[in-house]
């Protein structure tokens, strides 16, 4: 068994300054490409986590106007700067308007026609990633507004992931970062 010679570590961790320089130089342009839409949320903690993912992949977050949502976003916004959040009064009406404007509407849902996450192509046009309720999924009236359903395969006993985890996986894939 050979021993590694003493010296610098085999893995170099990049310092924060170098990481900042490698990121995009311009500010986020609202609605330019990718939108996460957890339009039927159950838990505020999931919205805060998803907000952080949106920043990481350069996406906007569209959320319903429930009284508890602003506080949940504020509590979860560890970025300590304003995030790209848009308020939705009528989820199905909003999704229909997004499709009419040319956006591709992708729902994270268990469906017979669903594409597996590994086969989901990166977004090439403005794309809305629709996330349903943690227990009930995407409502029936919104399923007709989807252009595509994506399924996240699971081998465990549960039938779904929470909205923050599922949304983060799909957003990274749509952003072309996975």
Automatic annotation (TrEMBL):
Residues 1-21 are annotated as: Disordered. Residues 45-172 form the tRNA/rRNA methyltransferase SpoU type domain. Pfam families: SpoU_methylase (PF00588). Coiled coil: none annotated. GO terms for molecular function: methyltransferase activity. Signal peptide: none annotated. Keywords: Methyltransferase, Transferase. InterPro entries: Alpha/beta_knot_MTases, rRNA_Methyltransferase, SpoU_MeTrfase, tRNA_m1G_MTases_N. It comes from the Bacteria. GO terms for biological process: methylation. This is RNA methyltransferase.
């Amino acid at each position: 068994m050979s021993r590694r010679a003493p010296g610098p570590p085999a893995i170099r961790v990049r310092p924060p300054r170098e990481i900042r320089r490698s990121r995009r130089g311009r500010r986020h342009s609202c609605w330019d490409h990718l939108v996460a839409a957890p339009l039927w949320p159950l838990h505020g903690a999931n919205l805060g986590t998803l907000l952080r993912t949106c920043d990481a992949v350069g996406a906007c977050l569209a959320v319903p106007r429930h009284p508890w949502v602003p506080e949940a976003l504020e509590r979860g916004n560890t970025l300590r700067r304003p995030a790209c959040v848009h308020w939705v009064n009528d989820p199905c009406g909003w999704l229909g308007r997004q499709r009419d404007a040319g956006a591709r509407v992708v729902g994270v849902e268990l469906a017979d026609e669903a594409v597996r996450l590994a086969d989901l192509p990166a977004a090439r046009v403005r794309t809305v990633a629709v996330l349903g309720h943690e227990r009930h999924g995407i409502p029936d009236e919104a399923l007709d507004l989807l252009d595509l359903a994506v399924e996240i395969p699971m081998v465990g006993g549960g039938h779904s992931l929470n909205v923050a985890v599922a949304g983060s996986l799909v957003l990274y894939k749509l952003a072309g970062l996975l």
